Amino acid sequence: MKIFHRRSFLKGLAAFPGAAICGIAGAGNANANIAAPETVEAPALPWGYNELNPEYLRKLGHLGYYGFECAGGSFWAIITALKETIGYPYTLIPLPAREEVLHHLKNKNSGKHLQVMMQFGVGGVANYGSLCGAPNGASSAINIALPMAGVKEMVPRLMRYYETTPFPSDKSNEYGIKNGFYPPKYKSSKSLPQSASHSVLCHVSVGSWCENAGYASGSKERSERCARLTGDITAMAGTLLNAHMKGELHTVSPMKVSQETAGCRTCHSKGKEYETGQFTRGMMECGSCHDDRRPHLGENKLKTVYGADIGTWSGAAAIGTATGIGAHAVSRRFGKGEPDNEE
Ligand code: HEC
Ligand code: HEC
Q1: 104 contacts: CB under 8 Å, gap ≥ 6
Q2: Per-residue pLDDT at 38
Q3: Which atom of ligand 2 is nearest to the CA of 277?
Q4: Which of 223, 309, 317, 340 has the most beta carbons within 10 angstroms of its beta carbon?
Q5: Terminal CA-to-CA distance of the chain, rounded, Å?
Q6: Which of 269, 273, 302, 305 to mutate to test the pocket of ligand 1 (most atoms within 8 A of CB)?
Q7: Which pLDDT band, with edges at 50, 70 and 90, does 322 fall under?
Q8: Structure pTM?
Q9: How many domains does the chain have?
Q10: Residue 108 is part of which domain span?
Q11: Does 67 share its domain with 201?
Q12: 342 occurs within a structural domain
């Protein structure tokens, strides 16, 4: 792949009237200090990886949050670890070094603004509250290291870990109170309350943690919680990469959706049978949003699936099971290479 080559681009423009060149150069003014290289060739993806130390990644991810917030933080941490151990081609990614980030923090940001790729993922994509930045940034790094088949195996496992784990982890809380993290001064040195969000959304994750912990979303404690969470997700990404390298991903992290989600997915998975419910896709925990529709908790409007009057969602799940596509079968199928291929 060829990285954008500014000089030849400008040379190509020489045939254009002067006004057009000025127009384009003007639009690029913010980048006026970027020197055009002679040629830069970046090899095609994936770039590969080697064994990484999850505890080092936990600390780097936490530091990354201080430098670049959640998504930039996990991305920066994983790529930094790969750059430190592999070097080229990871050296091609613009990435402030660890010392530079620390210097930046010690000197109250030294008047300069550091920026990395994936930083837009902050707060669920530019503070929009959708996908949490920590798994977003980490997945982007995984996407550079692994072939797509590996990415599709690994990322859902990371997301599932996110949904089910009470954050911040014990390990992160321990580093927090025992001065085990890198930043010169922490936003909070307390052992912070832990909660599992059962959702990959920033909005839900932050909201449920705040409600549980009693801290406001703009508090230093919430911010420190997200820094520790970023460390935890980064560490897990390293654990999964290590397992993948040894061909042990499926044993180290069996992919299992919750029993409830598996029940819904007997009918609502990606497929061609519209009538049976295959007009949706996804593996998120269904109950985190469709909570009034959990089995036994609510009436549904499904009266005619397979010609039967089913009345409740548990009735729907029972019919799914009776037709041989039960929840158990679905949650087990996840462990065997995701044959239903959620493209
Ligand atoms: C036995 C198959 C089956 C199972 C199991 C099932 N559904 Fe459905 N669902 C359907 C079909 C078919 C439709 C569309 C027909 C209809 O709406 O009556 C539907 C419709 C829906 C709708 C849209 C219609 C509405 O009423 O708003 C939602 C939302 C939904 N299902 C959620 C769920 C959730 C959540 C679960 C798990 C707790 C679940 N379903 C389990 C078959 C199923
Ligand atoms: C982050 C929240 C969220 C999660 C998690 C979620 N849904 Fe939905 N779902 C929605 C919204 C919002 C709609 C659209 C509004 C509606 O139809 O009620 C929807 C619609 C649906 C529909 C109706 C058809 C459609 O596309 O409009 C079905 C069926 C459905 N969801 C099933 C599921 C299943 C099964 C899961 C778990 C695998 C799930 N949902 C997880 C929010 C969610």
Answers
A1: 67, 96, 110, 112, 114
A2: 78
A3: 29
A4: 317
A5: 25
A6: 302
A7: very low
A8: 0.83
A9: 3
A10: 54-252
A11: yes
A12: no
